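Obj.: predict assembly geometry.
Materials: sequence records (below).
Method: joint structure prediction, all chains together.
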Amino acid sequence: MVENVVGRFSMPLGIGANFLIDGRDYLIPMAVEEPSVVAGASSAALLARAGVGFKTGCTDPIMIAQIQLLDVADASKAKRAILASQEKILACADTSPTISQLGGGPQGMEVRYLPDTEAGPMLIVHLFIDCRDAMGANAANTAAEAAAPLIEQISGGRAGLRILSNLSDRRRAWAEVEIAAKAFDSNDYSGREVIRGIAEANAFAIADPYRATTHNKGIFNGVDAVLLATGNDWRAVEAGAHAWAARGGQYRALTDWHVRGCGDSETLHGRLELPLAVGTVGGATRSHASAQIALKILGLDVDGQEEFSTESGGSAGDAGAESGLQGARRLSQIVAAVGLAQNLAALRALATTGIQKGHMRLHARQVAVAAGARGEAVERIAGQLIAEGSIRLERAKELLRM
Ligand code: NAD
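Observations (raw structure tokens):
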């Protein structure tokens, strides 16, 4: 898959349990090296089941391909000329017969003017490419390269870069959840206290970039784990989502948590929306054996797509447009739900006992393994470290030598 390979780097593959998404049960494959992530997502998903689980949605899978135009004599005139030739340009950018047959391909365009860059003024042409079930980097890049000569000819400019934008803000997914306050009741805290704390934590992350960064990192604990497990390009999604989080000029939380209602009928409402350029075909999704298994677990492998096609009204025989579309869109919705669950798990811990209590047992096991413990010794050493209240590598090594 890559160059200069000297070996493999394995990650644990866990299963996020308890997920009810749009009325359907899911087991979520999560590839992640950090302790507590899978446990956190699973416990938050269990809380969400106390309501109706997660409700999700998404836009069409539209990627943006950028063409940078330099040395344009008259920017307004060139912009008008490009837009007037939209049909011809889009036809020229229609380079993937497979995607077009599935109902995707170039859908539209816009032209932006950057008057004041270090390299002088530039016109930037955006092609909107519906990539169906592909993440679409190759489809978008090929389209941009194919359309560039015609755009040069029409504008009189010189094409520079021709590449997709990872700020895929026309390709978003969202997840929502509503949970009754009483579902958060415990011996130490009332549910109403907890959900108020969660809303206050979110307000902090909306107002403060220092907090927002950590808040969003927690979301990506879940998002990246699913992306990695399914062979998706998590750097692409991260880059896009962080840019989206800063779209108003300040980096903010990607989520929104509010208390609704009053008194005994109070509920916690949460929402996460982010750009999610993911694929169920292409890239590593089909070339990595574990990614194929992960997609199968999600019901998004080729057979699963047919199943979805039947659900959305098509016949099992026409594994065409609908089924294809459903694959990547469905994955993006699942990923959004996992991100929201992960955030809920973190905020719930932060708003109550703090993050460390639950984390420590898992951390102690990792320290024990790092010290050389294997088999039953892992639990024994971890237990001892916790009992002593000192989770240090040196102490774990000492205990192992005893
Ligand atoms: P791809 O080119 O491997 O596969 C997409 C192709 O699959 C389509 O062009 C189409 O021919 C075919 N296909 C079959 N069934 C389809 C369906 N139902 N829907 C859509 N297409 C279908 O993959 P890609 O998604 O274009 O590229 C993803 C890869 O590109 C990732 O590995 C990513 O890391 C890499 N990449 C990313 C960037 C970036 O994010 N900036 C840049 C370059 C490459």
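Conclusions so far: The two ends are 45 Å apart (CA to CA).
To do: check interface contacts against the pulldown list.
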